[in-house]
Design a protein that fits this description.
Number of helices: 26
Distance between the termini: 59 Å
Strand order of the largest sheet: 7-14-13-9-10-11-12-8
Largest sheet: 8 strands, mixed
Bound molecules: phosphoenolpyruvate, magnesium ion
Structural class: alpha/beta
Strand content: 15-25%
Number of strands: 22
């Protein structure tokens, strides 16, 4: 049947069943107008002509509030508006319900009678149920063909939103909903009692799953995860919910259609609620309803994977790091999260995999349908769902331009790392997971200058066992081949929290608290296990280990003593050992700046953690956006301090590197190289741009300009501007 004929038949049937003189269906267009798509009882000439804006008249009010209106005297309602082309003034009673799908309003369905009557609850239920069927019809795209030329339905409306950029890059592709909405195709039941039974058995197995999750070891303590599950359990036993589900079945729906309907009503009603606590609870409820649907229908994960588009952009409310790793990397072009922060584990992993991510994209899950076109801009945070052709063309061009630049960087890969005036430099990369390793070859890094071992701990559900640690370290060393890897001992505490490890009572200042080397020395069991895993994994090779947050030089000797005991233990039991152990210290705490000679003697090498060093020198929390950008690391005091470190390292012949964010910025790297720090470690994506900038820099000339300011105590100057002007004058690519 043609879509118009089908729609006409539906409204005719409703009018008949409900003994109504009028039944009309309105569909929401992309321009926010509700257009009359079908009617019996009103003037047929008004179809595809009569239109109301969202919020206008009774129909517009129903659409904008997503609530039904049941009125015995429609004309007396303050929102009533008379549309002459429909000839509707003779009708007194009015029942209108929103056409909802996944919480979105797609249109409005109305019945009217001449008599003054109030429709019964069962009639309201029945009309809402039919509206749900219409929602499926609209979502299936059948009605698009009926639209007047150039008019789009709201369902295919382009949506552009500004979200938060969390991982660099641009992705063009198609939506894959992480928790796919289960499409309910079987709407009407033939045997209500059998459906009630199906519902009851699905509910009890859902409850069992939740109890099971709650009793698992990793959540068997207080914490956010447990809170969520507790509220799931509460909802799963919620009598009101179960009653509404059973009522919907009583009205003729299948068990799965009743879940969908109750959830859709609830979601639409909650759309206007802004209270963050309630919204969060609503999302939990959504997840639960989705789980129940999957219990009822049974989903086929394997066929889903096989049908994954080659340009998948995952859209999820939230996601665990392990879940992301379940998707094949080759299909992934981006990730969109309704929550998610730059320190979420899933974001850390996505960044390592080189997938652009945006977070805090409120409401995106409800707006998206599987297979919708979508663009993720992980640089600006912009998100374009169902983009207009011109937006898509602009982005395609942007991606092409970035690819060309990447090619230019690849061409630099095999060129010697020498500045314009012939001074050598070395660029290494920062890493923390096995998924980072392919970048070692692709970026042209000379090695891994910082391997953040805590990442394995952060994405795990429980403490990784000694064997798991050893396996990871061995795989990393093997994947790196001849390139050196510097493993940093566990740097937990501060902003790096392990959900399963409650270290101390709540700390008032965690950044200044019981973290990193402090924790390692106080809880040597943890440190010993890690060192043993590293020593075993590096058998037959050189092992480079560095210690985070050294505050007092004596801490290096304490750590060295523990490691030596492990070496002794392993050799006693005949294990292979590393050929050489290089033990480095990270310079992240300003106190060390005043004990540089001792530091350079105690450590085999020193690596400046400029993120923390800068945070502590300027007393600005690196994670607090209100202050984090206030002071500039390319500034006189900071460069002056770093230059003193470089001089001390030089004097003692101690190798020096720097591995904070500053190294990955072309202007930062230029300033660092100019003051004598020429081994830098950075995110792999920065290696190309930094290499291009350093190769074009006459280091001697730049050093001259910087030194003039550093050595003249009384002079103040905008050091950042000096370096930038130098780059501009000398055609150094620095953006
Ligand atoms: C630093 O502090 O600069 C550093 C490299 O360590 P992290 O960012 O892991 O604290
Ligand atoms: Mg640090």
């Amino acid at each position: 049947m043609e879509p118009q004929a089908r729609l006409d038949a539906i409204v005719r049937q409703i009018a008949q069943n409900m003994v109504a003189e009028v039944c009309s269906a309105y569909v929401l267009r992309a321009d926010g107008v509700l257009e009359l798509y079908a009617t019996v009882g009103l003037n047929p000439g008004a179809v595809h002509h009569s239109a109301l804006r969202l919020g206008q008249g009774l129909v517009g009010t129903i659409a904008s509030s997503a609530r039904s209106l049941n009125l015995a005297e429609a004309q007396k309602h303050p929102a009533f508006e008379y549309l002459p082309e429909t000839g509707e003034e003779i009708f007194n009673s009015f029942l209108g319900v929103p056409i909802l799908r996944a919480g979105r309003t797609l249109g409005v369905l109305v019945v009217q009678n001449e008599a003054h009557r109030l429709y019964g609850d069962d009639e309201v239920e029945a009309l809402e149920t039919v509206a749900m069927v219409l929602g499926e019809l609209i979502a299936a795209g059948d009605l698009k063909r009926l639209a007047n030329d150039g008019v789009e339905l709201d369902l295919s409306r382009p949506v552009a939103t500004a979200a938060q950029p969390l991982a660099e890059g641009i992705g063009l592709g198609h939506v894959v909903l992480h928790e796919p909405r289960v499409v309910v195709t079987n709407l009407f039941n033939e045997d209500g009692d059998a459906e009630i039974e199906r519902l009851a058995s699905a509910l009890s197995s859902l409850r069992l799953t939740i109890d099971d999750m709650l009793s698992r070891r990793e959540v068997a303590f207080e914490g956010e995860h447990r809170d969520v599950l507790e509220s799931y359990r509460m909802f799963a036993h919620d009598k009101g919910w179960v009653r509404r589900l059973e009522e919907a079945i009583g009205n003729g729906l299948t068990a799965e259609a009743s879940v969908e309907k109750v959830q859709s009503d609830m979601r639409a009603r909650m759309a206007a609620v802004s209270d963050p606590y309630l919204r969060e609870r609503m999302s939990d409820f959504d997840d639960l309803a989705n789980r129940l649907l999957r219990e009822l229908i049974g989903e086929d994960a394997a066929s889903r994977e096989a049908n994954l588009p080659s340009d998948t952009i995952i859209v999820a409310r939230s996601m665990g790091a392990a879940e992301l790793l379940d998707y094949p990397r080759k299909n992934l072009r981006g990730l969109v999260l309704e929550d998610g922060a730059s320190t979420s584990h899933v974001v850390i992993v996505a960044r390592a995999m080189g997938i652009p991510v945006v977070g805090q994209a409120t409401g995106i899950v409800a707006l998206s349908e599987n297979a919708d076109a979508i663009i993720v801009d992980g640089i600006s945070g912009d998100l374009h769902l169902r983009p207009q052709p011109d937006v898509e063309a602009a982005y395609t061009e942007k991606v092409r331009f970035r690819a060309k630049r990447q090619q230019e960087y690849r061409d630099l890969r095999d060129k010697p790392s020498l500045t314009r005036d012939g001074k050598p430099f070395a660029l290494h990369m920062n890493a923390g997971l096995l998924v980072d390793l392919p970048q070692l070859g692709e970026s042209g890094a000379e090695g891994i200058g910082l391997f953040r071992t805590e990442l394995q701990f952060m994405i795990a559900e429980t403490f990784p066992r000694a064997e798991a640690q050893e396996t990871l370290y061995r795989s990393i060393a093997e994947a790196a081949g001849a390139k050196p890897v510097t493993f940093r001992s566990l740097d937990i505490g501060g902003d790096k929290v392990l959900p399963y490890f409650r270290s101390a009572p709540q700390e008032e200042n965690p950044a200044l608290g019981w973290r990193a080397i402090r924790l390692s020395l106080d809880r040597p069991g943890l440190f010993r296990t890690q060192m043993r895993a590293l020593l075993k994994a590096a058998a037959g090779r050189e092992l480079r280990v560095m210690l985070p947050m050294i505050t007092d030089v004596s801490e290096i000797a304490q750590a060295r003593a523990i490691i030596h005991r492990e070496v002794h233990h392993l050799s006693k039991f005949g294990h292979g050992l590393p050929l050489r152990l290089n033990l480095g210290a990270m310079l992240e705490v300003p106190s060390l700046l005043f004990d540089l000679d001792a530091l350079m003697c105690a450590a085999d090498f020193v690596s400046i953690g400029s993120n923390d060093l800068f945070q502590f020198m300027t007393a600005t929390d690196r994670g607090n956006t209100a202050v984090a950008a206030r002071y500039d690391p390319i500034s006189k005091p900071f460069l002056k301090a770093l230059k003193a470190v470089a001089a001390a390292a030089d004097k003692h012949g101690t190798p020096l590197t720097l591995c904070g964010e500053l190294a990955g910025k072309p202007l930062g790297a230029m300033a660092l190289a100019a003051i004598g720090i020429r081994t830098l470690s950075m995110s792999p994506a920065s290696i190309g741009p930094v290499k291009a900038a350093l190769m074009a820099t006459d280091l001697g000339a730049l050093a001259g300009r910087i030194d003039t300011v550093i050595e003249n105590g009384a002079q103040t100057a905008d050091m950042h501007a000096i370096v930038r002007e130098f780059a501009e004058e000398n055609d150094v690519p620095y953006r």
